[in-house]
Amino acid sequence: DTGVSQNPRHKITKRGQNVTFRCDPISEHNRLYWYRQTLGQGPEFLTYFQNEAQLEKSRLLSDRFSAERPKGSFSTLEIQRTEQGDSAMYLCASSLGDRGHETQYFGPGTRLLVL
Amino acid sequence: QQQVKQSPQSLIVQKGGISIINCAYENTAFDYFPWYQQFPGKGPALLIAIRPDVSEKKEGRFTISFNKSAKQFSLHIMDSQPGDSATYFCAASSDTNAGKSTFGDGTTLTVKP
């Protein structure tokens, strides 16, 4: 399968714990995006990278959230001191190009449940 | 402030019928309007997209109609099939900030056989 992959697919954690998700984009895609999706709503933009550079971060991305994309390949999204409100599906997408509006290919997401 | 409003929230259509989903946006800087299809347990997948220099785009059974003056766009699914049953999201982005897409809240479509 050469699509976007995300791991783990499901994560259950207790409030206050730290969690880390991984996204492997389609090979050679230079842009990588993170979104959060809660039940009954559309994906909400969190942040995106062009190669290894993080170009924009949403206000939704509090200080407890951090994303990295070392060497412009895979990316990790870490949530520190998780709260129940962090429970959501975390989606990763990737695209190829640098002029904007390229097709974003989404992964299957990581579903987080904070107890 | 929700920048992209989508309606209806849910839609039930008979097989062979036409499904229509509407979206309205507020930011006049938006210049790219994609529609995504999402099946349970999967991420969204791009279905069709339009730019504001055209009023309509058709790909197979799927058509986007775009009204720039009204800041509205809609998805029409002709000859709807049970396999079209999914959640559909409209989205919008601007060329100056193409990495950031704003999504509607989704429409759950059920096509009855």
What do these coordinates show?
The complex is a heterodimer of chains A (115) and B (113). With 115 residues, chain A is mostly beta strands. Chain A has no helices and eleven strands. Chain A has strands spanning 5-7, 10-13, 19-24, 31-37, 44-50, 53-57, 65-68, 75-79, 88-95, 105-106, 110-114. In chain A, the strands form two sheets. In chain A, strands 2, 4, 5, 6, 9, 10 and 11 form a seven-stranded mixed beta sheet that branches. The radius of gyration of chain A is 13 Å and the shape is globular. By secondary structure, chain B is mainly beta. Helix content of chain B is 0%, strand content 52%. Chain B is built from no helices and eleven strands. In chain B, strands 2, 4, 5, 9, 10 and 11 form a six-stranded mixed beta sheet that branches. In chain B, strands 1-3-8-7-6 form a five-stranded antiparallel beta sheet, with no helix packed on it. In chain B, strand 4 and strand 5 (45-50) form a beta hairpin. Chain B starts with a strand and ends with a strand. The model of chain B has no long low-confidence stretch (mean pLDDT 93). Chain A binds chain B through residues 4, 31, 33, 40-45, 48, 50, 55-56, 58, 91, 93, 99-109, and chain B through 4, 6, 32, 36, 41-46, 49, 89, 91, 93, 95-106.
Condensed summary:
The complex is a heterodimer of chains A (115) and B (113). Chain A has strands spanning 5-7, 10-13, 19-24, 31-37, 44-50, 53-57, 65-68, 75-79, 88-95, 105-106, 110-114. With 115 residues, chain A is an all-beta fold.
